[in-house]
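Query structure, 185 tokens:
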């Protein structure tokens, strides 16, 4: 989840397992027989629009069982009430919303981010890439890399791909994953 939000252009900030009480303690709620319980939501995020979301993440098989229990129903009701009081939204999601091709792409790009390319290559490759994309938006990533290499034979095609992956990871180049298009060109 954190990798996904960390690379969401519209996500302004996020915090794993946020403390919901002002004193920094976990969120507490009282069940129907008066017993206190603690809840540990998985993540909180705020977006550029100002929208704030509290996330609960459960494995789909576990969520099906939890939804049948009174304790879970009371806990989510208490969390929804707290979110409503704060003007937030509560989202309960499963691995199906997280383990997507977008996350696979982020993990693939992360490999390039761990090993920064040569600084002098970045600006040259990005400008060539932007120019080629403006003229030919239908080309694949590999085809564009090959065309950049032909225009600048000093830099290898693998180095070009590395710079592009690095630039996507750090959002030097911005790609709109929802609409599958470059968003800053």
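Result returned for the query:
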């Amino acid at each position: 989840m954190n990798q996904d939000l960390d690379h969401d252009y519209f996500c302004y900030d996020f915090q794993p397992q946020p403390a919901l009480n002002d004193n920094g303690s976990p969120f507490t709620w009282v069940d129907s027989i008066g017993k206190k319980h603690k809840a540990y939501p998985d993540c909180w995020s705020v977006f550029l629009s100002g929208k704030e979301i509290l996330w609960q993440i459960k494995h789909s098989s576990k969520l099906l069982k939890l939804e049948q229990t009174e304790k879970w129903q009371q806990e989510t009701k208490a969390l929804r009430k707290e979110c409503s009081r704060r003007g937030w939204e509560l989202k309960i999601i499963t691995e199906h919303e997280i383990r997507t091709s977008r996350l696979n792409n982020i993990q693939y790009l992360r490999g390039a981010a761990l090993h920064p390319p040569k600084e002098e290559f970045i600006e040259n490759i990005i400008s060539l890439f932007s120019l080629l994309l403006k003229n030919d938006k239908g080309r694949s990533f590999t085809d564009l890399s090959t065309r950049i290499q032909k225009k600048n034979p000093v830099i290898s095609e693998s180095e070009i791909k590395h710079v592009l992956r690095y630039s996507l990871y750090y959002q030097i180049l911005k790609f709109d994953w929802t609409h599958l298009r470059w968003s800053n060109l």
